[in-house]
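# step 3/5: fold
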Amino acid sequence: MNETLGLDVAAPIEAESKVTVLSVRQLMWIRFKRNRLAIIGAVLLALFYLMALFAGFLAPYDPRTTHAEHPAAPPQLPRIVDQEGNFHWPPFVYATASKVDPKTFRRSYQPIGDTRYPLRFFVAAEPYRLFGLIPTDIHLFHVDEPAKVFLMGTDRNGRDMFSRVVYGAQVSLTVGLLGVTVSLIIGTLLGIVSGFLGGLFDNVTQRFIDILIVFPLIPLWLALATTIPPTWNSVQRFFAISLVLSLVTWGALARQVRGSVLALRETDYVQAARYANAGTWHIITRHLLPNTMSHVLVIATLAIPAMILGETALSFLGLGIQPPMTSWGLLLNEAQQTRVLLQQPWLLLPAVFVIVAIIAFNFIGDGIRDAADPFSK
């Protein structure tokens, strides 16, 4: 009869077979991609971490190299138009010399002659170790002597600010990841165990977290940072600062994970695992931990900016990273004098990188938070 009426019974069945069933992870990824700010934040952070990874290749000079003839030099960007208005390619710079005004004692830099020094790409210059392992001397760009290329100017000792910012990203961005990793391990495990077991362990843990949370953060940072021996080298201080930052930030994560576990432990599948005589560790690792990971990832993404700000604050106060290592906070510590705002504002450029990195992390955190519940509107 269906054939008589001209109906095709196989069509709905064939259409139904073409329906694609997406997993929760695929739904989360689709929802994350729809958040444009999160994608912008991810792209910015990817560029920042690539910059930190290839710091030696991108930086034209070693961050410790001093250019004694160019102290406090302003940014010198490559040019494509010379002094007569003629176009030239590739970009070039002029050699400059400093001159001090006898009345104001302010230093200025003027081009020496009209000789153009073109920017050379992928050239051999100062040696370094790519990824900290591979010895090489190839840099992205450089210029021949006596010209210099200072994209962000120099500090009072004549060190290239662009090179120092690029190398400083290695410390400032990595300390956040290390600190959050340690904080996640402590906070997640204690939060899950505290929420699942309850009783005396839960009471003691929560009271300790109360003390940790209500204690003023900056004095606690200072107190812990001052315990680092001054004789430690830069690498030891780096790991010590990461540990300090993680020890004072795990409490909030543990408190939030505990709240999630209190709701999860009454669910049917957890109760069924208990009735099946499943061990505590089995329930935690197979049921509670996987169901709290999305929440943990959101907290971790939002906690990394706090770690970066913590390292910046400690280094700004002189208790964090010490030379010869460099970080964005240490660069800001060297730019805290009043004359910087009046005569050398380019020394505050590291603050721009700190702000952009923190905003990018917050964008990603918001995107992950929305994507963690793909079924909500």
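# step 4/5: annotate
Residues 67 and 158 are 5 Å apart (CA to CA).
# step 5/5: archive (pending)
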